[in-house]
Amino acid sequence: MRKLLVASLLAIAAVVATEACAMQRSEASMNFDKENVRPFLTELERRLHLGIEIDALAQFLLDTPIDEEHAVTIPIRYRGKPMALLVRAYMDDVDAPDLYFETDSKTLRNAIDAEMARFAKARGL
Q1: Which end of the chain has fewer CB atoms at under 10 Å, N or C?
Q2: What pLDDT sits at residue 5?
Q3: What does the alpha-carbon distance between residue 49 and residue 118 come to, in Å, rounded to a whole number?
Q4: Tens digit of pLDDT for each residue in 80-96?
């Protein structure tokens, strides 16, 4: 009986640990020149179809004062599933914000990372 109880508790602990790992946020980030923020968001939307309102998000991010951070959580759809995307900008330089995209989906994070790499390569960055 005791062995059964221990085995059951270990199984429950494994499920809880698995769910906790699945709920961890994943982040994709990159430093952008100001003039590349809107084009990147446009490309991201065109390729991933997230439902991002590009103009509003770009303006929000670009309005971040130097040495400050702006963050917004936006509702999106990725591969037909509704989810939230936390988008942050840290303006460490007047013309070069760091953009961070945080999500619970590692698949979406990987897709955003791939888009960042593609965008940078296409522009020789």
Answers
A1: N
A2: 41
A3: 16
A4: 999 999 999 999 887 88
